[in-house]
Amino acid sequence: MQPSELAKVSLLLVSAKYFSDYFPKKGLNLRQLLVPGGLVLLPMLLILKQPDLGTALAISSVFFSMVLVIGLRSKFLIYSSLMSLMMFPFLWQFFWNRLRGYQRERLLTFVDPTNDPTGTGYHIIQSKIAIGSGGLFREGALRGDPEPVEVSSGEPHRLYLLGFLRGVGLRRNFHFLHALFLFAPLGG
After folding, report:
1. pLDDT tens for each residue of 79-116
2. How far, in Å, CA of 6 to CA of 8, rounded?
3. What's the domain range around 73?
4. 0.70 exceeded by the pTM?
């Protein structure tokens, strides 16, 4: 287990404790976000230094979700949204130039996995097919596409699970509810 994994849980608990102690009735303003923002920003910068972009994005998304659930003052929300929109092109260029090549490739693959369907996008595409074609309750046992997948990328122990299961024969018989039961125990 990496220290960044402990940081995710710790920051979640610290932020929850802070917001429960200092819960604003009229919504959060900039001054009330400085302390929790600093608590999250420092470990997030250390995690980015590793570099572990996925964990840093997970921590920031959890923090922003907490802030949105608690609520922002409408004036602050409008001003921060406008400032974010104006600063987006500059911030995008700044961060994009600091990403390593493999991080850029992962982000581009996430946005459009069809750019490299037999390489980096293979497992995302297979997962979408495995869940999407089966639908919520599946097409039916053994009624799916029986042809095996010939193209495989990555090492066997690093394959994406849903794409791997589709490749070994579950194909279109695998559906959303199977995936839900498969991953439910992992959620805690």
Report:
1. 888 998 999 899 888 888 888 888 888 888 888 888 88
2. 5
3. 3-91
4. no
